[in-house]
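Summary of Year 1 activities. Much of the first year was spent building the evaluation harness for sequence design. The harness presents a backbone, in tokenized form, and records the residue chosen at every position. We chose the following record to illustrate the format because it has been used consistently in internal testing since the harness was completed.
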């Protein structure tokens, strides 16, 4: 029995159909950087690793853990409480507040870090007003929390990342059967709150896992605030010490965090099926609150909107008007065009790959392809700095192989096309954000009736003709959503772009980073505001989808 199963598996690999073969090739291409990362990490770091353990690595690990705990705790408070208020009560402005709570997600954490540093530092307007009011002239005369610190990083990142928890918790609460809540209210009024949160815990955990993944992958904020985390350590060791092997070994340890978070998120998502069973129930009607309690809910929900979106955008808009005279528009336009080119190319490739891979795994019904495609789409869970190591190593292998073939078969002089070019950066973005396209298109294609394809077969069309003729029009919303989300994420991507961009190649994110790092915030404001405006697309998409 075992031998027949094994023979059947290898027969599928040896004699697959064209679509399965293409899908398998795409999977191998996406898995290549992960294999390369493992191989590089197994190399000799010239005893640098031992030195790191004795010196800086404990600090990297401690700061990473503290940052994850702090951001996770504050994001939970902001996300859960606001989601519960919006889902369960009617209060002044709730309709606008419901979608406005997603707005902070449009701002990359490193941009909000720059704005609040300018606002809260010693030379900023807040401390300036305090000194003027009390007559102080020196920093030693009073105490004020330092924004460029671990606590400051926790503060700014929490107000950017809480929407992950908010969105998933709100959805779960609205899918909860009203009967559970009504029974809880008959017992004890307060018990309804605990029942709500208990039933929504899979969604809360899934959202928390996504938040922690983002914390682990952040570079711009921690670098600007000088908080030494594992991600920052990878940069320092790779670029500062020129030791790719040691950087890969630290990345391997970060992999442990990632596996734990992935397992946590997947387990939570599998338990969310419980909520799907309640779709036959009518959603619980929100309760009207007395004016005082309603205003309290409004004020609480406005806090993350104001702190996470309104204040940073206002500061940036002020910088734009103040800095227009000094803005290098030629460089800004060049960076914008580069960002659009990279983001558009990455989005198109992701949509194409995801469409081919998902349609093949769904309709060809080959389990091994389904498993491998899911594994190949896990790049989103990995920090950009970690993926960059694997991508550089894998790209080097491809260039070396092509160079060998060119010189030995065609007697040419191949110089490589991945290392040092934009192709490597596009490949890295595709690898990182393939999960977005895979998830969006998989969600769309599984909602289609299988009778559609069966009817096409009955009419005499082959598989290729059917999927190419019916797939794009039927999945146009999913394809558009996938492309839009990838486009926006690539526009915001910083760590991989810094590591993999060609020489003298600027994008909007690197443009903002370079000027902000040099304390030229006014110069970077227009580019930062452009990134935020582009990020509004997914928020508008999610809001319109929610209404439908």
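For this record, the design step produced the sequence shown next.
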């Amino acid at each position: 029995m075992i031998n027949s199963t094994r023979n059947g598996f290898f027969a599928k690999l040896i004699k697959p159909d064209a679509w399965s073969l293409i899908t398998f090739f795409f999977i191998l291409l996406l898995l290549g950087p992960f294999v390369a990362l493992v191989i590089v990490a197994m190399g000799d770091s010239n005893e640098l690793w031992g030195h790191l353990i004795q010196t800086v690595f404990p600090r990297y690990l401690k700061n990473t853990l503290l940052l994850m705990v702090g951001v996770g705790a504050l994001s939970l408070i902001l996300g859960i409480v606001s989601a519960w208020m919006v889902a369960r009560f009617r209060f002044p402005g709730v309709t606008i507040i419901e979608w406005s709570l997603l707005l902070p997600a449009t701002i990359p954490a490193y941009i909000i870090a720059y704005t609040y540093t300018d606002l809260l530092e010693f030379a900023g307007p807040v401390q300036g007003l305090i000194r003027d009011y009390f007559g102080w002239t020196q920093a030693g005369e009073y105490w004020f929390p330092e924004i460029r610190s671990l606590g400051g990083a926790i503060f700014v990142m929490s107000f950017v990342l809480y929407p992950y928890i908010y969105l998933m918790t709100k959805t779960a609460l609205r899918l909860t059967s009203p009967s559970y809540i009504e029974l809880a209210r008959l017992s004890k009024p307060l018990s309804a709150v605990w029942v709500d949160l208990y039933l929504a815990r899979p969604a809360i955990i899934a959202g928390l896992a996504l938040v922690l993944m983002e914390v682990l992958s952040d570079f711009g904020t921690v670098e600007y605030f000088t908080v030494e985390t594992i991600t920052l350590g990878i940069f320092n060791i790779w670029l500062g010490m020129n030791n790719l092997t040691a950087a890969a070994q630290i990345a391997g340890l970060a992999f442990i965090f990632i596996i734990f978070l992935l397992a946590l998120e997947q387990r939570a998502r599998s338990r969310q099926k419980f909520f799907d069973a309640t779709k036959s129930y009518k959603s619980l009607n929100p309760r009207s609150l007395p004016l005082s309690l309603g205003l309290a809910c409004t004020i609480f929900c406005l806090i993350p909107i104001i702190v996470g979106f309104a204040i940073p955008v206002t500061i940036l808009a002020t910088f734009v008007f103040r800095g227009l005279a000094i803005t290098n528009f030629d460089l800004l336009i060049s960076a914008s065009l580069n960002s659009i080119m990279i983001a558009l190319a990455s989005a198109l490739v992701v949509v194409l790959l995801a469409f081919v891979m998902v349609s093949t795994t769904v309709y060809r019904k080959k389990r091994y392809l389904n498993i491998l495609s899911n594994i190949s789409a896990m790049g989103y869970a990995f920090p950009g700095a970690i993926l960059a190591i694997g991508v550089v190593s894998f790209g080097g292998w491809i260039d070396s192989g092509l160079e060998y073939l060119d010189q030995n078969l065609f007697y040419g002089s191949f110089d490589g096309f991945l290392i040092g070019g934009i192709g490597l950066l596009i490949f890295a973005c595709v690898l990182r954000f393939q999960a977005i396209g895979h998830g969006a298109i998989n969600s769309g294609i599984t909602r289609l009736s299988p009778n559609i394809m069966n009817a096409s077969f009955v009419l005499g069309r082959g598989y290729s003709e059917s999927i190419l003729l019916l797939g794009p029009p039927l999945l146009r919303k999913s394809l558009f959503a996938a492309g839009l989300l990838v486009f926006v994420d690539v526009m915001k991507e910083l760590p991989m772009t810094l590591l993999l961009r060609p020489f003298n190649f600027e994008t909007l994110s690197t443009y903002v980073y370079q000027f902000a790092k040099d304390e030229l915030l006014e110069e970077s404001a227009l580019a930062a505001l452009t990134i935020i405006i582009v990020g509004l697309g997914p928020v508008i998409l999610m809001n319109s989808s929610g209404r439908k």
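The radius of gyration is 25 Å. Quantitative recovery figures across the full test set are reported in Table 2.
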